[in-house]
Amino acid sequence: MTGTHENPRTSRRNILFGTAAAGAALLGAGCTSNKSNDEADAGSGQANVADDRPGKHVTIGFAGPQADHGWLNAINEQAVRRAKKYKDVTLEATEGSNDNAQQVGQIETLINKKVDVLVILPADGKALTQVGLKAMRAGIPVVNLDRVFASQQAYRCWIGGDNYGMGLNAGRYIGEKLKGKKKAKVVELAGIDNLELTRERTKGFDAALKNYPNVEKVARQAAEFTVESGQSKMAQLLRAETKFDALWNHDDDQGVGAERAIEQAGRDDFLMVGGAGSRRVMDAIKADDSVIKATVLYPPTMAASAIDLARALGQGKGVGGLAEFEIPGSMTLYSAVVTKDNVEEYLPTGFK
């Protein structure tokens, strides 16, 4: 992959396993067979593995934060769409809330309904740890989606993005693009600084840049994952730094505002790398008529994979392609870099 030395097809397979966009499901595609274990073992070489055929019915409770952001909205859409694919799955979804107490109440309602499995993307992992523990103690396995609980006892499986790797791959791409330039300067438009995920993205970015002694990060501003904050913080960066060679923006949604500030300033003398993988940014990369040259994925398809994992848990199944009879305790998705060279392959995964 351009700037990261990754094989794009390998990367795509790594991030899209188990999602509708990939076609081939994580769980091969996530359901029990009507055959006995002996028959399954004889036919496939592995018993107790989930596949695409209807099996034991599973009721999955899904609780996430309020969909007030493009990526979060895509998370909800992926979960609902994936659940509808299966005739043996009923999805009980909450309205979603950014208020910790309200989200706890919504999850407790799902616990009282005695759903078979819970998929939870907490507004705040630490604050919702206790309700995860409550579900597990009630015998309801929890798939913890992305924002991790403070205790491993609060979930059976965690699946999410690689924030450190996201920064690492953004830094590698930029470093490769600038490695022939003397005294190159880069700036960073981060997300919400009190979130661990933001700090991890910055750590990864800084670690990658250390491999390029000619590249210096000269400025950083933290925005709030909103269009408005992206515009105001980017305007500050542009005023402070009259000349730089590359910008890494952590989030494609706040990037809408950043791009407005860049256009208003009349600047086109640097390259921009986005974060998360919105369809809008992928279209811009394909058009190749702006400063946007790449985006680093943080795939919302993880919600579809979480539904697959929950279904397998409810049916007591394992993951196709692995020797183990149980699903793993954690799964970290890969943060691929999308460029003009591979954007056609990734366009179906772009979220609105």
UniProtKB/TrEMBL annotation:
InterPro entries: Peripla_BP_I, SBP_2_dom, TAT_signal
Location within or outside the cell: Cell envelope
Region (Disordered): 33-54
Keywords linked to the UniProt accession: Signal
Periplasmic binding protein domain ranges (all copies): 60-317
Gene Ontology cellular-component annotations: cell envelope
Predominant localisation class: other
Family annotation (SUPFAM superfamilies): Periplasmic binding protein-like I
Single annotated GO MF: carbohydrate binding
Pfam families attached to this UniProt entry: Peripla_BP_4
Family recorded in the similarity comment: Belongs to the bacterial solute-binding protein 2 family.
Name of the molecule in the record: Sugar ABC transporter substrate-binding protein
Provenance organism: Streptomyces nanshensis
